[in-house]
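Deliverable D4.2, example record:
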Amino acid sequence: MDVRKARPSIYHLVLITLSRHRHRHRHRRRHRIIDTAPLRACLSAMAGPFSIIPLFLLSLSSISLSSAHLHLHYAAHHNPAPPPPPPPQFPNCRLEKAYHFFQAWKTAIYSDPYNFTANWIGTDVCAYNGVVCAPAIDDHDLTVVAALDLNHADIAGHLPENIADLADLAILHINSNRFCGVVPAGISKLRRLYELDLSNNRLVGAFPMAVLDLPEIKYLDLRFNEFEGPLPEKLFEKDLDAIFVNNNRFKSAIPENIGNSPASVIVMSGNTLTGKFPRSLAGMAGKVDELILSNSNLSGCLPEEFTMFNTTAVLDLQGNHFAGELPAGMEKLQSLEVLDISGNEFRGKVSEMVCALPNLKTLAVAGNYFEEVDPACEALPEVVVDDRDNCLVTGRNQKPEEECRAELSREVVCDAGKSRSTADEEAAPLEFEKAVPPPPPSQPKTPSTARVAPRASPKPPKSFIPQIVKSSPPPPPAAAVYSSAPSPSPSTAFPPIKIPESLGGRYLSSPPPAPAMAEY
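Output generated by the structure prediction step:
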C-alpha cells in the first residue's frame, strides 16, 4: 500500500514544513538552501503504519539545524571578533630602533645572574637598566639613547650585529662581563661614540679594526681580553687620548709610528712585543703622561730617548729583560712621579739625580743587579724606594753573592742600541734605533747637544664631548694597581707598584685582581 495515498495529510505536512523553510532561505541572501531530496528518500523507506513519529522527529531536527545555522550566521556578522591591539608607540623612530636592538641583544644573552636585563621590556627604553637618554646632538627635541653602562653585570653572551641601531650612542661601557666572540663590524657606524670600554671580557680575534673607523673616539679600552695578532699602525695615527690594549695575546713589533700618537695614556703591557724601539719614540716627548710597557718581553739597553719624556708622570717598564746601566740624562724627567724598572737586568748605580727628581714618589728598582743605590735616596722621606733582590753590599733581601758574581762578570755591550752579553752571544735582544737630530756643523756630535728635550706640544682640542651623565668605570681602590706582578725568574716575584691616588683616576677601570704576591 502506498503511504502517500494512505496518509496524505502526514506526508504533505512534512513536505509543506520543509518547503516553507526552503522558501524562507531563498529570500535571505547568502543563506544555505537545504536539499530535501535525501529526506524524501528517507521518508519513502520509512513508510509504514508507525512512521508518523520518526517523520515528525526528522521534521523537528531539520528545523533545529536550520535555526542553529541562522543563529551562527547572525552572530558572525553582527558580533565580530575584537581587532588586534595596535602596534607599540614610541616617541620617535630612533628610540624604536633602540628598542629593537635591545630585544635582539636579549636573545644573544646566555646568562644574566643578577637579572640586570630583567626590565628590558616595553617601549620605555630610557627606563632600561644601564641606559642613559639625552637630547640628540642634531635635534634637541628628540630624546635618544646616549650612553650604555653594563659594567660589572657579569652577563654572558655576544654583541649583536645591529648595534649600529644605537646611532646616537656616545659612551659604551661593558667592562667586567663575560661577552665572547668578535666585535661586530657594525660598531663602526656609531659616529658619535666617544668612549668605548670592552675590557675584562672574553672577546677574541684580531685587533678590531672597526673601532678605528669611529670618527669621535677618544678613549679606547680593550684590555683583559683574548685579542691576538699584530698591533696596527693605524692605532697610533688615531686622535686618541687613552689607549689600553694590555693583557691580551698581541704578538707584535712596536709599530714604527708609535711616536705619532697624541695619546696621554698608552698601556701595552702583558703582551709579547718584539723588534726595535722605533725612531719615532722621541716624538712622544711632551705628549705622553703615562707609558706602561710592563711584562712585554722587551730586552736590550734602555734607549736615551726615554730621558726626553720630560712631561711623563708614570713610566712602567717592569718585568722585561732590559740590561745595562740606566741612560745618562735621567735627571731630565722632571715630571716623573712613578718609575718602575723592577724585574729587569739593570746593573751599575742608582744615582742621587734619579732619587732627587722633584715630583718622584715611587722608585722601584727591585729584582735587578744594581750594585749601588746612592745613600741620599734612603734619606728622602717623600720617596718610596724598593731596592730588594739586587746585588747591594749593605742592603737587605739581596741576591746571593754567587748569582751576582756570575751575572756581573758578563759584559753588556750597548752598540747602536743593541745590548748583548759577551758570555752569551747567542741571545737576540731587542734593538733600539736612536732618533738623534744632527748637530750643527761647527760643533762635535755629543749626547748632551744631540738630545735636547723638545718643547711640550699642546694637546689637541676635543671636538665632541657628550653633555650627559658619564657612565664612568668604577673608581680605583686607594692603592690602585696598574699591572700584574712581574716574574723575572721562577723563584722571584715582586708586588705591584702602588700608583698615587692623584694619578690615573681619569681612566682606571678595575681589572681582574692580581695574583697573590710573594712576601719578603
